[in-house]
Amino acid sequence: MDEEVFRALADPSRRALLDALRERDGQALSELEEALPGMTRFGVMKHLRVLADAGLITTRRDGRRKLHYLNAVPIRLIYDRWVSKYTEPWAAALTGLKRTLEAPMEKVYEIYIKTTPERLWQAITDPEQRAKYNFGSRQTSDWTPGSRYEAGHPASPGLLGEGENLEVDPPRRLVQTMRALWSEEAKAEGFSRVTWEIEPVGDSCRLMVTHDQLRDGALEELYGGWPMILSGLKTWLETGELLTTPGSLMYGQGATE
Question: Is residue 60 located within the same domain as residue 116?
Answer without folding.
Answer: no
